[in-house]
Amino acid sequence: MEQFEKIYLYQRIVKAKLFIDTHFADNIDLDNISDQAHFSKFHFIRLFKSIYGKTPNHYLIKIRIDNAKILLGKGHTVLETSGMVGFDSPTSFAGMFKKLAGRSPSTFQREQETKQKAIQENPFTFVPNCFVETQGWTK
Amino acid sequence: MITKITHTCIYVLNQDSAYDFYVNKLGFKVHTDAPMGEGARWLTVTPPEQPELEITLFLVAEGAMFDKETVQTMTTLVKKGTFGAAVFSCKDILATYEELKSKGVVFKKPPTKEFYGFEALFVDDSGNWFSLSQMNS
Q1: Is the predicted ipTM greater than 0.90, yes or no?
Q2: Residue B46: beta bridge partners?
């Protein structure tokens, strides 16, 4: 680890990223995060993007949409999900979801419902037959 | 002709803790989590940027595939770290190392410079070891 200079910089950026991961539903002030990480806002954004390929704001949106997919898969409505992941309006949520996921939240939810129903009714559809036979699972 | 790998297996000793490790710590996505009857479970996860590659978290348990003796042998081998299941790649090994460490992932080797880039080694909750690599650009 001696060959890595400025590891303390990485630790602060990682800490900020983990804060976003756990507080994505809150009204996060990215200026505040950069202050807490003891960086200027410009420096923080530049370092964050160099590590994660996205600005902190774009990363926050991605995490919100990722978590929205989980909530929609669990059966929460689009309206509920929008609020639970920190969007101010369902319209902006739906627009951003479609932009990142390639389809609307309701379409995505229908796909998940169809898949879960298929898993419940015939889980063998999802398992290569070699495993079914070697495991002795009965269709 | 063969075009790609769609499934691979990692032998795990507990599927609940393996789920926690691969999904909550490593950040893999759940592909299929299906009850197969009589307590059996088909659990596959995918790396974040490879949704088409299913990693089967395959429980070492007595049944049609493993008799009691084989389960004991396999359990011993998995626990002692016999199996190096894969090489995972990342864009920034230092950031990934710091994050995984903060989530409780045990590293056998910290990020170390190699001729091809950097490599670290970590183990999963069962004992399987993995290389985490950042290749030279």
Answers
A1: no
A2: B29
Predicted TM-score (pTM) of this structure: 0.90
Any CB–CB contact under 8 A between B36 and chain A?
yes
Q: Nearest CA to CA, how far is A11 from chain B (Å)? A: 6
The SS3 assignment for A136 reads coil
Rounded to an integer, what distance in angstroms lies between the CA atom of residue A94 and that of residue A97? Answer: 5
CATH number at residue B52: 3.10.180.10
Q: Is A114 exposed, middle or buried (0-12, 13-18, 19+ CB in 10 A)?
A: exposed
Average pLDDT value over all residues in chain A: 90
Q: Residue B130: is its pLDDT beyond 70?
A: yes
- Whether the CB-CB separation of A87 and A64 falls below 8 Å is answered with yes
Q: Which two tokens stand for residue B77?
A: 């081998």
Tally of residues, chain A = 139
Domains for chain A: give ranges and CATH numbers.
7-135 (1.10.10.60)
